[in-house]
Write a structure and sequence with these properties.
Blueprint lengths: L1 E3 L2 E3 L2 E3 L6 E5 L6 E6 L3 H18 L4 H17 L1 H12 L3 H24 L3 E4 L2 E7 L2 E5 L5 H15 L2 E5 L5 H13 L7 E3 L4 H10 L5 E5 L2 H11 L5 E5 L5 E4 L5 H13 L11 E5 L3 H13 L19 H16 L3 E4 L17 E4 L6 H4 L6 E7 L2 H9 L6 E5 L3 H9 L5 E4 L17 E2 L4 H6 L2 E6 L2
Helix pairs in contact: 1-7, 2-4, 2-5, 2-6, 3-4, 3-6, 4-5, 9-10
The chain binds nicotinamide-adenine-dinucleotide.
């Protein structure tokens, strides 16, 4: 059993003052994997003070110095590749393939920040003024459990690129993964106080960051409910916020889609990261004229999805992160049945032989209309809702009829037509014919999926404050 009893403040591993602990439970078999000591308000205030002191000098570092720190950060994380991947599989239940991809995203996010920093103009002429882009200050980084270390790597490397310092509060459920990241970042030899990590609960450590007048900005990834509370609580100190929140992403199958390819891609996009992905393509919009073909291919594809031990290289769907998340997903399957949707695959209960863990049957509902809760609310599990449409205008209207706007997907053989549809969708990222990621391109949500953007130049600008000098 792993005992995680240190947090990281001012360049050192320290014992938190907080006395509460949290059990880390295996999602595969409910075994207690470890125990993490939780930091409290006093611990958080110490971390903020360290980051504030470090900001004085770190904000004055040159571009070349920061590139050097980012290169060291990259190398130190790369050095812990296997540990990072294994911790994600063991603690979170991420399937091996996804854990590897998530690890690569950690590195590519840092590499993109290095590339951006190399060319970025921190001084610009605008009209008669010189505009200097200053680091915004100390940043509070708050992350969820579904790809913990890649969020930390991207947010912290952006903060460093900007000349900011940070206090990081990862999900308490990710403490084993956090421990590996803490050790890697320590090994990178960044100046003391530039990053600080406090394990702890959201309403304690997270809330202290949100309220602190010494934190200039919060970069948050997590649920829309908590994101809204951060925006409200942060208003008293006029916090800058970047909020990466939930989604209910539409996936439009155009009339000319090659379904033999498009349906397996649609299933993979819906069930990615065990369905616990903010960008999961959880609403499949299919032409009514091709619904029978769609259903037949979905039935066949889902029957072959392998659910099971996330450490097995051929597993496609692993367990839900926690018993609570399992119950939440079961609740939505019950809701779908009660709302009158038709179950095409999966359903309630665990797959046979996997009763010990938080495993959900990959589930597909058809005959869904967009007013049902299973079409409107983020389920965060392997549950796909299939909605028929008759015209492309109707498909676009259904796709946009959501409070969210994080991602969208379009599939069709006529690329020009697919791009026209993409241009009409209200989402921060639209992927055509399959899942795609580019760490130089902005990522973030329209509507209640968030505020601001991450990655590339847009991401860096969120950590900078323009200062106009007129002479
Ligand atoms: P969550 O909102 O419950 O928690 C996220 C983080 O916020 C955790 O570290 C938590 O401890 C902290 N927190 C909780 N209450 C807080 C408070 N009052 N003040 C400050 N911090 C607080 O989310 P989760 O359950 O860990 O993750 C799943 C959610 O994250 C889903 O809704 C998903 O869509 C979203 N998500 C979004 C993105 C994106 O990029 N848009 C990416 C991944 C996950």
């Amino acid at each position: 059993m792993k005992i995680i009893d240190k947090i990281y403040i001012n360049g050192a591993f320290v014992t938190p003052e907080g006395t509460e602990t949290f059990d880390l439970i295996s999602p595969v078999n409910q075994e207690v994997l470890g125990k993490v000591a939780l930091g409290n308000e006093a611990d958080t205030l110490k971390a903020i003070a360290a980051a504030k002191a470090a900001f004085k000098t770190f904000s004055q570092t040159t571009r070349e110095e920061r590139i050097g720190y980012l290169e060291r950060m990259y190398a130190a994380i790369e050095n812990r590749k296997d540990d990072m991947i294994n911790a994600m599989v063991q603690e979170y239940g991420g399937i091996l393939q996804f854990a590897k991809a998530s690890f690569e995203n950690s590195l590519s996010g840092i590499a993109a920040n290095i590339a951006v920093l190399k060319d970025f103009a921190f001084e610009k002429q605008v009209g008669s003024a010189t505009v200097l882009l200053d680091p915004v200050g100390v940043v509070g980084i708050i992350t969820p459990w579904n790809a913990s270390n890649s969020f930390i790597a991207n947010k912290l490397s952006t903060a460093i690129a900007a000349g900011c310092t940070a206090v990081i509060k990862p999900s308490e459920m990710s403490a084993i993964q956090t421990q590996v990241m803490m050790e890697a970042l320590h090994a990178a030899g960044l100046p003391a106080g530039v990053f600080n990590i406090v394990n702890g609960l959201g309403p304690v450590v997270g809330a202290t960051l949100t309220k602190s007048p010494d934190i200039s900005k919060i970069s948050f990834t997590g649920s829309t409910v908590v994101g809204k509370s951060i925006a409200k609580e942060g208003a008293d100190t006029v916090k800058r916020v970047t909020l990466e929140l939930g989604g209910k992403s539409p996936n439009i199958l155009l009339e000319d889609a090659n379904l033999e390819e498009a349906i397996p891609l649609s299933v993979a996009a819906a069930f990615m990261n065990n369905g616990q992905a903010c960008i999961a393509a959880s609403r499949l919009l299919a032409p009514a004229s091709r619904m029978e073909e769609v259903k037949a291919l979905l039935r066949k594809t889902v029957a072959n999805v392998k659910v099971g031990n996330p450490a097995d290289p051929d597993t496609q769907v692993g367990p839900m992160v926690s018993k609570k998340q399992f119950e939440r997903v079961q609740g939505y399957i019950r809701t779908g049945l009660a709302e009158g949707a038709t179950l095409l695959a999966g359903g309630l209960g665990q797959p046979a032989g996997l009763e010990a863990g938080n495993f959900v049957q990959p589930t597909v509902f058809v005959d869904v209309n967009n007013n049902m809760r299973i079409a409107r609310e983020e389920i965060f599990g392997p549950v796909l809702s299939v909605i028929p449409y008759h015209t492309i205008d109707e498909a676009i209207a259904i796709a946009n009829d959501t409070t969210y706007g994080l991602a969208a997907y379009v599939q069709g053989q006529d690329l020009a037509q697919a791009k026209k549809v993409a241009a009409r969708l209200e989402a921060g990222r639209v992927a055509i014919n399959g899942f795609k990621h580019d760490p130089m391109a902005p990522f973030g949500g329209f509507k209640q999926s968030g505020v601001g953007r991450e990655f590339g130049v847009y991401g860096l600008e969120e950590y900078l404050e323009p200062k106009t000098i007129l002479s």
